[in-house]
């Protein structure tokens, strides 16, 4: 599996998971808060800070009818008009540079999700190092071609996409000039539930397209993300906020700083724990072999005396004969005097 290098950070199976903090609209229309989110993400250990590049006009039409209104009692945004929602959630384009500059100062990779061609042109002027395609745009073939033509790495969320749609996406991106493509398993509900996340798709998708696969995670907590790493996820994206209690369009399913810190630590531990297929003692375990059980003299034994269940026992530590010889030793004869606490070896047996 090809390793992808983005501004000196290696992404791939042989490297710790690449963690993306997604700000989305959690800045609540305050640049100061946006910069605080950047700083908190950096302190939490996230490797990248992502925002979204659109305006209400590039996302939808300013129309008041049922098509443009969210009518879903299970949605966080039920009853809202799409245009008004995007007005509330968008990140002003003049904020992009100060946000990106602050992220770079703090050692993170800043990038964005463009939602139309004008956003790509704008982000190219800011020299973003990679692009993200959102789940709802993964069938927008013109947009995928536009982004792929930049030649920069692409990360694409796969929410709702069929295998046929993903095949078209991957072929389109590669043919248009993208050599570094990562797919993210994604469930496009907000929040998502673990039982609706189906991360078993990750290794299947990886094999199907011979491509790196990660997780865009809308569940609460770290459990799903940690489990996905064990299934081969190389990238984890989580929405991020300073405090869910302070509200915001995506705050209800966003991580707080301490949770993000735990995610960074635990996903790296999961990656480290995967290791390789191995049996027997590892180098670190060899010192523990002495704590296995073995056969010891439990009472003083005279030369010529038979070994019995009373005078030999299987105990720790492991300096004597292995327990598998215990039954064979019973009723055999000691070749010499043996004191209690002596580990038995074949030398103590009468030949």
TrEMBL record:
Q: Which Gene3D superfamilies match?
A: Aldolase class I, Antifreeze-like/N-acetylneuraminic acid synthase C-terminal domain
Question: What residue stretches are annotated with the AFP-like domain?
Answer: 294-351
Which Gene Ontology MF annotations are present? N-acylneuraminate-9-phosphate synthase activity
- Cite the InterPro entries for this sequence: AFP_Neu5c_C_sf (IPR036732), Aldolase_TIM (IPR013785), PseI-like (IPR051690), PseI/NeuA/B-like_N (IPR013132), Pseudaminic_synth_PseI (IPR020030), SAF (IPR013974), SAF_AFP_Neu5Ac (IPR006190), SAF_PseI/NeuA/NeuB (IPR057736)
EC identifiers of the protein:
2.5.1.97
Keywords of the record = Transferase
Q: Which Pfam families match?
A: NeuB (PF03102), SAF (PF08666)
GO annotation, biological process: carbohydrate biosynthetic process
**Record's SMART domains?**
SAF (SM00858)
Concerning PANTHER family, the annotation shows: N-ACETYLNEURAMINATE SYNTHASE, PSEUDAMINIC ACID SYNTHASE
What NCBIfam families does the entry give? PseI
Q: What protein is this chain from?
A: Pseudaminic acid synthase
């Amino acid at each position: 599996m090809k390793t992808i290098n983005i501004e000196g950070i290696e992404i791939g199976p042989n490297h710790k998971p690449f963690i993306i903090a997604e700000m989305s609209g959690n800045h609540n229309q305050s640049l100061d808060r946006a910069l605080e989110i950047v700083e908190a993400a950096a302190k939490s250990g996230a490797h990248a800070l992502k925002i979204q590049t659109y305006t209400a006009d590039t996302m939808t039409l300013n129309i008041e009818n049922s098509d443009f209104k969210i009518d879903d009692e299970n949605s966080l945004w039920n009853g809202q008009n799409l245009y008004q929602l995007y007005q509330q959630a968008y990140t002003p384009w003049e904020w992009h540079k100060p946000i990106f500059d602050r992220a770079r100062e703090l050692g993170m990779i800043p990038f964005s999700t463009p939602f139309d061609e004008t956003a790509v042109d704008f982000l190219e002027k800011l020299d973003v190092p990679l692009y993200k395609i959102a789940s709802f745009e993964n069938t927008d073939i013109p947009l995928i071609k536009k982004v792929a033509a930049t030649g920069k790495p692409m990360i694409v969320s796969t929410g709702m996409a069929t295998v046929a749609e993903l095949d078209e996406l991957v072929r389109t991106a590669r043919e248009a000039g993208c050599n570094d493509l990562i797919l993210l398993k994604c469930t496009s509900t907000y929040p998502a539930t673990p039982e609706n996340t189906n991360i078993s798709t990750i290794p299947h998708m990886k094999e199907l397209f011979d491509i790196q696969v990660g997780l865009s995670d809308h569940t609460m907590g770290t459990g799903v993300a940690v489990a996905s790493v064990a299934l081969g996820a190389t990238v984890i994206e989580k929405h991020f906020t300073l405090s869910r209690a302070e509200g915001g369009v995506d705050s209800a399913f966003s991580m707080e700083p301490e949770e993000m810190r735990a995610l960074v630590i635990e996903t790296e531990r999961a990656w480290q724990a995967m290791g390789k297929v191995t049996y027997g003692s590892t180098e670190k375990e060899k010192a523990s072999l002495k704590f296995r059980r073995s056969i010891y003299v439990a009472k003083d034994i005279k030369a010529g005396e038979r070994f019995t269940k009373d005078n030999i026992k299987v105990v720790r530590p492991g300096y004597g004969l292995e327990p598998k010889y215990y039954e064979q030793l019973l009723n055999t004869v000691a070749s010499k005097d043996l004191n209690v606490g002596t580990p038995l070896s074949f030398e103590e047996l009468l030949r």
